[in-house]
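Lecture 7, part 2: worked example. A protein chain together with magnesium ion.
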Amino acid sequence: LRRGGLVAFPTETVYGLGADALDAEAVERIYTAKGRPPTNPVIVHVPDTSMARTLTASWPANAEALAQTFWPGPLTLVLPKADAVPDIVTAGRATVALRVPAHPIALALLRVAALPVAAPSANISTNLSPTTAEHVMRGLDGRIDLVIDGGPTTGGIESTVVDLTGTQPTVLRPGLIGADALSRALGAPVAQPSVTTAVNKAASAPGQHQRHYSPRTPLTLAEDDGSSTVQAFAQEGMRVAWIRFADAADRNKQATDPISSTDNASLATVETHNSIQPNGNVLIRWLPLDPTACAAALYALLHDLDDLGLGRIVMAQPPIGDDWRAISDRLQRAAAT
Ligand code: AMP
Ligand code: MG
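Predicted complex, written out as structure tokens:
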């Protein structure tokens, strides 16, 4: 990192691709390796609040309150930037996004390097974020210097991004820390656009392009459990993965039901399931009916399905509600064309 190299490392959300945040040429290499548009700013990772403060032009009371409550953790704060932060890090904006990650390897790396480390997710731009070192290598092998293998990440989706530079704190990207938790910590309301508004209004936050976090296999997000969508694709002769939600007890029950096999090795031909016709080659996968567990499993499942060369992934509509907001956001982006 001190020589200007690119090092991928685990955080508690996803794997990041790091470079010295104060070295514009090093950060430029991140954009080149990822094919990231120069308009999309990167998050700077720091070992503690005191280094964060050195990268800001001001440190308001609400930044201090959120840092004390949630750092180290999956929360990114957008604040006025210090002059020392190169323009390439912030995509020319006057603000910088900062976070202290909670992963022990990430923290150890930041402490040993003693540098602020600019680190977007360690994947080719718009692709799925990596939750294992193997995912990183699949996308970036030959383009980066090193990946530190810390095993699968536990959070699974990217950090919550909150902008503290406006009149009211505003969530720019939903994540595992919800707006209500932020409001409680601040004792004041935090604004957040509805997921559909945020996804459709691609310009609402820099880099929040509509299509993002996508598998290579086209993904359809159903408005219901997805069965009729699966049936339609299967009838066209397509091999389809059908992702559904169930709680642990239900999944155990389903596992003993041959019709909705959870066989993880091969494509199961579904004989009759509701309206699914026998001519379809349909693989069924389950995600936990719990937002935290679902986030941890989501990208790894999509990476695995992507390797099967299927014609389509059909995803059941996730439950509605604040707890599911970040998952809905990622799924709508994954499904955007
Ligand atoms: P990642 O790709 O996980 O590094 O996330 C970077 C995202 O953080 C960007 O796509 C933006 O949505 C957000 N972000 C980073 N820097 C800023 C900034 N200065 N102002 C607003 N949002 C930012
Ligand atoms: Mg990313």
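Residues 256-275 have pLDDT under 50 and may be disordered. The pocket of adenosine monophosphate (ligand 1) is lined by residues 40-43, 78, 90, 93, 95-97, 120-121, 158, 161, 163, 172-173, 205-208 (CB under 6 Å). Keep this in mind for problem set question 3.
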